[in-house]
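Work package 3, deliverable 3.1, input record:
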Amino acid sequence: PARTRKSSPPQPQLPRGREISPAPSPQIRLADTARPPRRRRRAAMSHNYGDTIPLHPSSAQSDMDEIESLMYDAPSATVLPARPPSPPRASIPISTSPPPPSSKPPLPASSVPIFVPQGPTPAPPASVSVAIGSEGFGPPPNTLTEPVWDTVKRDLARIVSNLKLVVFPNPNREDPGKALRDWDLWGPFFFIVFLGLTLSWSASVKKSEVFAVAFAVLAAGAIILTLNVLLLGGHIIFFQSLSLLGYCLFPLDVGALICLLKDNVILKIIVVTVTLAWSSWAAYPFMSAAVNPRRKALAIYPVFLMYISVGFLIIAID
Amino acid sequence: MRGSPVLPPKVGNAAATSRLQQFPPAPAANGGGYQPPGSPLGGDVETQTNWKGYFNVASYTPYFNVDTDVVVDRLISSVYPMEGFFRKIDVNPDMYGPLWITTTLIFMLAAFGNFATYLMQRKSDLNIWNFDVSYFSLAASVMYGYAIVVPAAFFFLFQYFGSRPSLIRFWCMWGYSLFIFVPASILLLIPVEFLRWVIIAGAGGASSWFIFLNLKECTEGADMMALIASASVLQFALALFIKVFFFA
């Protein structure tokens, strides 16, 4: 989705993206006339957008106003590595996060993207939320026009980083605000479908029904578990919880793959027990922190129930 | 206080914690219970936002207002078919119990049903592990259908015959009555056929006696005995169904 510039004033914006207007020069002039009030506003919000590497050489036009404003803002800006951050999304605010954008741009159709750096914890916590590319100025790249491989690479990187945060031991796991700030639903989708497929391949009869049961249990189960926490008066964000429950399936995926390859009952029981314990360990801090301590068991039990039933499916399917 | 609207403080609590700015809708606020014909429908705010409340998670939080120890206490008192259960849930009926008891029971029936069938067949034919995944769908349809439809049907029947029940309390009570089948399904793994019948008869009997006592308490009137008896018989029939279809 195209990201829009936060500081865009209500006046009509000319599309400055390269993909829309082939003639850059008339744009600059018209943009110049619109520039002065915007410069003042941008000076006031000096830390809220970033211009990174332009993707096309034609966009390296020298926009003098752009350069001037950037030089004006430069003392407060730091140069972050050019990792495109994720679009702004609802997340539990923590103290080290950059201040949220003060206003959403009113023009969703504008093709001038900005970045709201809300990357995961690998970014240094003290960094100011400006991501300026290390080379060149100009309009920031648009995710609509970047190569597909870039998008895929970025999503894969996000999946891997979320996985490392959630499933593997790291010091930030206990803090629900930090654990999955950059949640996404691609990871859970891959893991659920992979688990369903693995179970379906393992089954000798009724393969499609096995996939249907596994997928339904996992998908509906994640939604119902999240609703359960919300109904018990807990404080979680719906999609963040879905994302977490999906990522915690990763150990069970590994277990299902091992069970698919080696069909020995004792081995299956051992593998499933280990991976089940791992999954539950991964999901426990998040779910237990979300509710009142007197209701912790009420929120945790259904999680265990879901993972145990999936574990049973893995053992039982032959 | 049966059938009266939920007291405002509880609802307000839910509103405060759930960022809900408006009063929950009247049907959810009084639990779908019977309202006497003369009473006003709560407040004017409620009737305006009536239908929207159904789709809002926050309007259902009053029914999940239980702590762990409360739920455990209710579970234990459902196993001993004693009379005090209805008094326990009268003030604060919860839907957490019925929802997760039925879900647990679905999983247990499917998993242990398969395992028990395997254990029985192992005596005659070695190593014929045949996992029937349709047990899951069958268990899900039967248990969810029973837990939702039967209390609702009896609610309407009781109302037709003049009593004044409360739907939420019926759902709560029927849901907790299913809890005894959870340990029973574990015990039904024992591959001795006679013992299995004894176990299921015991569990079914305890469950129907539980239903009988609590219905008798909550619907005053001796002329309801036919309905109450039919509810107990239905519960026993469910027990037999579980035995025949899952633990053959």
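Residues 9 and 38 of chain A are 7 Å apart (CA to CA).
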